[in-house]
Design a protein that fits this description.
By secondary structure, the protein is an all-alpha fold. Helices cover about 70% and strands about 0% of the residues. It contains 9 helices and no strands. Helix 1 crosses helix 3, helix 4 crosses helix 6 and helix 7 crosses helix 9. The longest helix is centred in the first third of the chain and has 18 residues. The relative contact order is 0.10.
């Protein structure tokens, strides 16, 4: 689909309107918006103008997006640093910025989240060591933290 009909101002307005609608569903990264607009056939000049406009008016802010994502993944759906890193990298974010924000998640915090998940699983009578280990690893927790948490778990919940 080529969106090169009309003059530049009309194309810019259409791309801006489409982007605002796209952002209304959930927060996005600049890379996601850029990819979506390019996929809709807008040229680089229009895409850059729209992304600059959205950033200027704080509709796009990758730092805020990362903070929101980390907050979500440490509170509502606890995940380890590895998984969070992979999810954010998949959204086209700069790896240096991701690392800077992930530094706020200490190994102690990651261990506390893993312990809370194990406790929750134990309440559901899932006490199989291999299943718990796989679950925590899939959630992106560091293998050393997983081993430490499960060692503590086996002392408190022997079969």
């Amino acid at each position: 689909m080529m969106n090169n009909r009309g003059n530049k101002d009309e194309r810019f307005a259409a791309a801006k309107e489409y982007s605002l609608k796209y952002l209304s569903y959930r927060p996005r990264t600049a890379w996601e918006v850029r990819k979506k607009l390019l996929g809709r056939g807008y040229d680089d000049e229009i895409v850059n103008r729209v992304v600059d406009f959205l950033a200027e008016y704080k509709f796009l802010d990758d730092d805020s997006f990362i903070e929101m994502w980390i907050r979500s993944r440490t509170r509502e759906k606890p995940s380890g640093r590895r998984r969070i890193y992979a999810e954010l990298a998949e959204k086209g974010l700069d790896r240096g910025i991701i690392d800077r924000h992930l530094a706020k998640i200490t190994p102690q915090k990651e261990q506390e989240m893993a312990e809370a998940l194990v406790q929750k699983k134990c309440l559901k009578n899932i006490t199989d060591y291999k299943r718990l280990r796989g679950f925590l690893l899939r959630r992106g927790f560091d293998p050393e933290i997983v081993n430490e948490v499960l060692t503590k778990f086996t002392k408190n919940y022997p079969d």
